[in-house]
Every structure is written in structure tokens, then in C-alpha cells.
Amino acid sequence: MYLYRHALELHLKGVLLAGDRLMTIDGEGLDEEELWRLLGSHNMSRLLPHLQKVFRYVDWKDHIDSGPIKTFSDIRAVVLDLERVDPQSFTFRYPTDRKGKASLQHHFSFSVDHFVSVMDPLIELLNNSVSALEDYWDNACQALADSEPY
Fold first, then answer.
1. Is the pLDDT of residue 63 over 80?
2. Given a cut of 70, is residue 139 above it in pLDDT?
3. Domain spans in the chain, listed from the N-terminal domain onward
4. How many CA atoms lie within 13 A of 86 on its CB side?
5. Dist CA 69 CA 57 (whole Å)
């Protein structure tokens, strides 16, 4: 669970970094301090508004269709569900908190099969999004270079 959560967090941040860099071309990116403040936390729900802004910027509307992930709302639901159980990425890393209290409720349970069937396509979608955003960046830089007078 911890590794899936960590992979999701890193992929979300990868989309934000690649998308924000692309958005700077039109002056729509975040200022550097705000970007690093977002990236410096384990709180994934704070990333969602800017993630949605990146998706809209590149015209990835609400229909996504990656297995069980069909819309941006589905991404939001997965992130919020995971953060409800593990808000700061400690729950599945440590059996107790710093005060000795159990990290999870006594009768916590979940379906590993269902969890994996949702997380794998979501992480793949985000990974592909980073690649696509990097391609957009390369194409935008090439177009700018080609339009410059010699």
C-alpha cells in the first residue's frame, strides 16, 4: 500500500512539473516558490487543482478512459479515498504513530485485487501523461526555435 501511495504521489508531481513547465510558455505556470511549496508536501489532494489546470491547458477534457478511471473526478476520488486512510504517507509505512497509537483502525480491511485494479491504470495514465507533456514541451520549443529569425 505504501509503495502504491508513494508511486501515485510521485506521478502526480511528475505531471505537475511537466505540465507547469509547458504552461510557463504562455505565462500560466505557477511561480517557482508556489510550485515547490506544492511539491514539498505529501498531501496529494493539494495537487488536484493544479493537476486539473494542467489537464485543461492541454485540452484533456473530462473524459479520460483508462480502465476504471474515466474522468478527472475518478482521479480525485481515488486520491481523496487514499488520503482519508493515509493523509501524510505514514499510515502504511509505520505500524504506530509517534505517540504509540495504531496507524490503522483495528478492523481495517480492503480488497487488494480491487485496489490494484484501480491503482495500476491510474499510475499508468499519469506516467503516460508525463511523457505526453514532455513531448508537447519539446514540440513547443522546436516551434519557437523554428519561428525565430536567424
1. no
2. yes
3. 2-97+110-147
4. 22
5. 20
